[in-house]
Amino acid sequence: MKITVDLGRCQGYANCVAAAPDVFDVDDATGKAVLLAAEGDAAEIREAARSCPVAAIGMEE
């Protein structure tokens, strides 16, 4: 699975962190999402992508 974060779209809502805290975090300096891991629980990652209000999270299985 390939996970991407479109930093141009990310607004730092942190919904991805709530859905998949082992995979995503929010950078203190930029306020944008960062990947902590290249893989993780697929269901959590799908929820992170679904819950992002600006559709900044992408994944390819």
UniProtKB/TrEMBL annotation:
It comes from the Bacteria. Its cofactor is [3Fe-4S] cluster. The keyword Metal-binding applies. It holds the Pfam family Fer4_13. GO terms for molecular function: 3 iron, 4 sulfur cluster binding; electron transfer activity; iron ion binding. Keywords: 3Fe-4S, Electron transport, Iron, Iron-sulfur, Metal-binding, Transport. InterPro entries: 3Fe4S_ferredoxin, Fe-S_cluster_ET. Coiled coil: none annotated. Gene3D superfamilies: 3.30.70.20. Ferredoxins are iron-sulfur proteins that transfer electrons in a wide variety of metabolic reactions. This is Ferredoxin. It comes from Thermomonospora echinospora. The lineage of its organism: Bacteria, Bacillati, Actinomycetota, Actinomycetes, Streptosporangiales.
